[in-house]
Amino acid sequence: LIDKFSDRILESAKRHSSRIVLALDYVDGEPEQIQEKVQSIIEQTSGGLAAVKINLHLCLPLSLDQINQIVDIAHRHGLQVIADLKLNDIAATNLAVGKLIWNTGFDAVIANPIVGFEMGLGPLFEQAHAARRGVILLVYMSHRGATEGYGLTALDETGHRSTLYEIFLERAIKWGSDGIVVGATNPQIIAEVAKRVNGRISIYSPGVGEQGGSHIESVKAGTDFLIIGRSILRANDPLRLTERIRRDVWDLR
Ligand code: XMP
């Protein structure tokens, strides 16, 4: 087993020639039906994916045991599994959640750097890395209202004026983040972040398709992994669409 999540997902991407992280966001039906749909989409598309992502859409209706079964299936198909919880709490809470998700088999979690390091995300980073798991940080989200938060002008700890996302980017580097989220809807910010990290931290971009982002522009700008949900889940032929997106962007950079 490769030690670091960030290396494992790159290895999985290479093996499947894919930059796609499939968001398993099924919302309708009884828990058992949701679980079946999730297992079936993994089985259909896994050959063209690097990872899958699970968030509250699944964690609320399903039991930990059901989530664990999904994680196992993804692993058996050679995929990494990301918990998109956008963790945003004090260390004691983050650590309790961390323990549960690592025991359930997740490889990484998405967290919000707004909470700070000391007694915030610091201990979560330590816990994750000790367990060979990763923490991915939000730097600029994909929805339109992201400007209202991530785009705010702020003074950093030294009194230097910058935007909140620039501060988050510096934190991601300083804290040893295992990935950075920048929405596909903002290719110019992806390009800015890519230039700064220079390949040392992978960039994850949601917001393709339904939210208006272009998978091609996003990867050209510097995205390493595209997080895609509804476009694939709702496609008439999910495998065909996965394959198209996979081929469109795998060799772009
Ligand atoms: P769609 O259906 O829009 O799904 O392709 C995208 C998935 O990604 C999540 N999402 C985000 N997650 N930062 C994140 O960590 C973001 O900026 C962001 N934007 C969308 C969304 O919840 C869904 O699972």
Question: How much helical structure, as a percent, in the residues?
Answer: 40-55%
User: What structural class do helix, strand and pairing data support?
Assistant: alpha/beta
Mean pLDDT equals: 97
Strand order of the largest sheet: 1-2-3-4-5-8-9-10
The profile of the biggest β sheet is: 8 strands, parallel, barrel
Strand content: 15-25%
Span between termini:
27 Å
Shape: globular
User: Ligands in the structure?
Assistant: xanthosine-5'-monophosphate
The overall strand count is 10
Give, in order, the helices and strands. HEHEHHEHEHEEEHEHEHEHH
Based on CA atoms alone, the radius of gyration comes out at: 17 Å
pLDDT < 50 runs, ≥5 residues: none
Number of helices: 11
Describe this structure in words.
The chain has 253 residues and is of the alpha/beta class. It has helices at residues 5-16, 31-45, 56-59, 64-76, 91-104, 117-130, 164-174, 187-197, 215-221, 230-233, 238-250; strands at 20-23, 51-55, 80-87, 108-111, 134-140, 153-155, 161-163, 179-182, 203-206, 225-228. The strands form 2 sheets. Strands 1-2-3-4-5-8-9-10 form an 8-stranded parallel β-barrel, surrounded by 8 helices. The model has no long low-confidence stretch (mean pLDDT 97). Bound molecules: xanthosine-5'-monophosphate. Xanthosine-5'-monophosphate (XMP) binds next to β3, β10 and α10.
